[in-house]
Design a protein that fits this description.
By secondary structure, the protein is of the alpha+beta class. Helices cover 15% and strands 53% of the residues. The protein is built from one helix and six strands. Strands 1-2-6-5-4-3 form a six-stranded antiparallel beta sheet, covered by helices on one side. The radius of gyration is 12 Å and the shape is globular. 20% of the residues are buried.
């Protein structure tokens, strides 16, 4: 799959990895809290600025919005049955 260089993916097992038309989706056995911490740290490390607009976190679910000069990215996380599901949407502004 074609994944932009500035979009980090967690290390380790990544099941059902799909990437097309500005969308990346996969699932991992890594606990939700670790995946959340990974994206909170690694998106800014890849030059993304966190946007408070539309961003929220509730137990076991998060939507994190980021922006760069010409693009926006939304990282959605949720946990179901011992797996963490990740959906990343990337848009040109």
């Amino acid at each position: 799959p074609q994944i932009p260089e500035d979009i980090p993916l967690v290390d380790g097992e990544r099941a059902n990895l799909a990437a097309l038309l500005g969308m990346i989706a996969y699932r991992t056995p890594i606990p939700y809290d670790e995946v959340l911490a990974f994206y909170l740290a690694e998106m800014p490390a890849n030059g993304w600025e966190r946007s408070s607009e539309g961003t929220y976190q509730i137990p076991n679910t998060a939507v994190l919005n980021y922006q760069k000069i010409d693009r926006k990215a939304t990282v959605s996380l949720s946990t179901v049955n011992e797996s963490t599901y990740i959906l990343i949407l990337i848009q040109d502004k």
